[in-house]
Specification:
This protein has 327 residues and is of the alpha/beta class. It contains eleven helices and 14 strands. The chain has one domain (4-8, 11-320): UDP-N-acetylmuramoyl-L-alanine:D-glutamate ligase (3-Layer(aba) Sandwich). The strands form two sheets. The protein has a ten-stranded mixed sheet, sandwiched between helices. Strands 4-3-7-8 form a four-stranded mixed sheet. The radius of gyration is 18 Å and the shape is globular. It starts with a strand and ends in a 7-residue tail after the last helix. It comes from Natrinema salifodinae.
């Protein structure tokens, strides 16, 4: 059984697919092993992207599989409250994935402990999901986290991307490598099997170098991936050095916007969500990069994985600081 929005509403423009977990975190500076209280939120790359885009006015849906439990229902409630249509297959088997996040000042930094083994989503097949939502979308998005979770999800990810491609839907994919989930060689093999079904590819520069083993600067990386796999646009993110994209018209660079960092988790997802929101309005690559960078900067100022931003905030930031766009 799946849960979705009300019948008769228009099909979401952006559809994403992946796992959303429960995030537990002690207050900043407190160790998990000594904590007496934990903050309780939901978080997942694909739902984070959908939430960022939804807050910018894009009609969005998130597909997944969850346990029919209070924790699974909390995830759905959180996603829906952030303006995204949850389209969920409920399961009596499997559990709700979680992760524990410890914020520490330098030199400790951030530590993440995953607790997601046997999560219900790891058994999600195409038959579990609302394929019509994928076929009727303008953009379908997933990330490299999803195929890392199980062999079943690797097959489902491949099938969904190809289904979207066959229906004329723009496919978007963020490599989003996680070393705690798989090795660079396993990730590289999986990514390369998916890239030919991807129109819009996001890849962190470090992943391109360390996982995909591509030499050169960001422009060379983007050009190589675009020419090798036939992607229409490749976006290389470079952390504090901003982002670079290569499309049919050339190369575009976008610097970061200055922001005080309260919580960096979810910044990359906010960038992708902002980019896709603008792209769904037929924004140019340069305009979409600007929106992605501004959304990411605003996300850094708030606790939690979600970019709870408004269109006017993003526009105001862009108007105040062009962010150093160049082509």
């Amino acid at each position: 059984m799946t849960e979705s929005g009300e019948s008769g509403t228009r099909s979401p423009s952006l559809v994403t697919f992946g796992e959303t977990m429960i995030r537990f975190s002690p207050s900043e500076g407190t160790r998990i092993e000594t904590a007496t209280e934990l903050e309780f939120r939901s978080a997942g790359a694909e739902s984070n992207v959908a939430i960022a885009a939804a807050n910018l006015g894009t009609s969005t849906a998130w597909l997944s599989k969850l346990p029919d439990s209070p924790l699974g229902r909390k995830v759905v409630r959180d996603v829906r409250q952030n303006g995204v249509e949850p389209n969920v297959a409920w399961s009596d088997d499997g559990r709700q994935g979680a992760y524990y996040l410890e914020h520490g000042p330098e030199p400790r930094g951030i530590d993440v402990i995953y607790d997601r083994t046997d999560a219900a989503v790891t058994t999600a097949t195409v038959d579990d999901l609302d394929i019509d939502a994928v076929r009727n979308a303008d953009v379908f998005f997933t990330s490299g986290i999803t195929p890392a979770l199980s062999s079943t999800l690797a097959e489902t990810t491949q099938s969904l991307l190809q289904t979207a491609r066959d229906a004329g839907v723009t496919t978007a994919f963020d490599c989003n490598y996680r070393s705690k989930l798989w090795s660079p060689s396993a990730a590289r093999e999986a990514y390369e099997s998916l890239f030919e079904s991807v129109d819009l590819l996001f890849v962190p520069e470090r992943d391109a170098i360390d996982v995909l083993e591509i030499d050169g600067d960001a422009a060379a990386i983007a050009t190589h991936l675009r020419e090798t796999y036939g992607c229409s646009t490749v976006v290389v993110t470079r952390g504090e050095r901003g982002a670079l994209a290569v499309d049919a018209s050339g190369t575009v660079e976008q610097a970061t916007f200055d922001a005080e960092t309260v919580d960096p988790i979810g910044t990359g997802d906010a960038f992708v969500g902002g980019f896709l929101a603008k792209r769904s309005e037929d924004g140019s690559t340069a305009e979409s990069l600007r929106y992605g960078a501004a959304t990411a900067a605003l996300k850094r100022t708030m606790t939690g994985d979600h970019a709870v931003v408004t269109r006017s905030e993003v526009d105001a930031l862009i108007d105040r600081d062009s962010g150093g766009i160049s082509r």
